[in-house]
From TrEMBL:
PROSITE patterns: ADH_SHORT. Belongs to the short-chain dehydrogenases/reductases (SDR) family. GO terms for molecular function: oxidoreductase activity. Keywords: Oxidoreductase. InterPro entries: NAD(P)-bd_dom_sf, Sc_DH/Rdtase_CS, SDR_fam. This is SDR family oxidoreductase. Pfam families: adh_short_C2. It comes from Paracoccus shanxieyensis.
Length: 245
């Protein structure tokens, strides 16, 4: 029970990797807050008194700041921050020279800017207490150069740069900052991907399979724990060997 007495906040915690990670942290004793467009309920086996599922738009800076204050009033200051919220704009994906600035702004806002804002809100308190864990979600797409994903790759690579800069600045205060970079992970979103595309992903993955969201949750729990105190500034891939960073 590595997180007894600790408060973990997961953005994008309504499904997929975010929810699996939130559940894992709760199972290990954390009081968990999730921010998501969907209000999340405590899963079976988790005390509802130790779970807050807040429905909000993570791009709404004013609402996020207020919700964070409410969460910390209820559960205490955030000890573990997992910036998981993000998405691509696949339905409007295009080649770079045909791309629209409006789409770029959306993708950068939902991925990079939400991460930046949460770090700015939470890091000062961690500094004052001399401890904390920040985990930022990037993507294999930041490194793979996939067609029609220049906006998403740019936003996710920006998160890598933010992580590295923050890790240097915050290490002196007992805070670690790391990036998680998943490849193909089985989530609800993958159910909307054509089978042929999924088959190609598996074929391009040396491990020969797609990981589960729960496996990523295990990595989140480790990096968020006291055991990972000497790991900071790193981009940790969980992709079955598809890209080696």
């Amino acid at each position: 029970m590595r997180f007894i007495g600790k408060h973990a906040l997961v953005t994008g915690g309504g499904g997929g990797i975010g929810r699996a990670s939130a559940i894992r942290l709760a199972q290990e004793g954390a009081r968990v807050t999730t921010f998501d467009l969907r209000e999340t309920k405590a899963p079976d086996g988790i005390d509802p008194a130790h779970w807050r599922g807040v429905a909000l738009d993570c791009t709404d800076a004013v609402r996020v700041k207020a919700a964070l204050a409410e969460a910390e009033a209820a559960f205490g200051p955030v000890d573990v921050l997992f910036n998981n919220v993000g998405q691509s704009a696949r339905e409007r994906a295009s080649l770079f020279c045909e791309s629209e600035e409006e789409v770029w702004r959306f993708v950068i806002e939902i991925n990079l800017m939400t991460t930046l804002r949460m770090c700015r809100l939470v890091a000062p308190g961690m500094q004052a207490r001399g401890r904390g864990r920040i985990l930022n979600m990037s993507s294999d797409a930041a490194f793979s150069g996939d067609l029609r994903l220049a906006d998403y790759a740019t936003a996710k690579m920006g998160i890598v740069g933010l992580t590295r800069a923050l890790s240097t600045e915050l290490a002196y205060h007992g805070i670690t900052v790391n990036t998680i970079c998943p490849g193909a992970i089985a989530t609800e979103a993958h159910q909307r991907i054509p089978q042929e595309t999924l088959d190609n992903l598996v074929a391009a993955t040396p491990a020969g399979f797609i990981a589960t969201a729960e496996e990523v949750g295990g990595l989140v729990a480790y990096l968020g724990s006291d055991e990972a105190r000497f790991i900071t500034g790193q981009t940790i891939a969980i992709n079955g060997g598809r890209n080696m960073l």
